[in-house]
């Protein structure tokens, strides 16, 4: 019990610090809107994270860039293993595929653990894959919320604003560069400073978790069967 209370105090202190930091940030005239700002540069793991204040919006967009020595097939096996999202996706406690429309389109469901005192969030997401080909030069994985696809599931609060685009580009020697751009608005009763705090942490920790799963699953041989969807044209 004491350990749990101590952990809660540390977490709340972190949120309080983030709130003050965001207030200072909002007052800073030197930070223009619509420009990406580097907020994390992990040179050891080749991960960069940016944020951007969109014109007319109180919440930031985010961008993460990473490089991995893997194939499109291996990345697909992780990205499309929906039930394992809780092993690496930031604060995910449940996820599942809802409907396969085609080899490049599907719907899925995800639940995010919220900070203390706030209701957990869920989202219904529509995903479309634009497969890699030589002419395009990259694969694109587009994700958008469709909040009315399923009835609400109290006590979860349905996320209505959820947009993420993942671009995957081969850069030689079985190496792929990923660029993730997104904007998430978790909705009611979620203070903007808490959203901005999460959006600063989530992209980096998500990429870090993704890399960890790539390494461990490959070593344990979990992904021997083909992924249900592909980033390349059949």
TrEMBL record:
**MF GO annotations:** lipid binding
Annotated TM spans: none
- Fetch the Gene3D superfamilies from UniProt: 3.30.530.20
Name of the molecule in the record? START domain-containing protein
Domain (START) ranges: 36-196
Question: In the record, which residues are listed under signal peptide?
Answer: 1-18
Sorted UniProt keywords = Signal
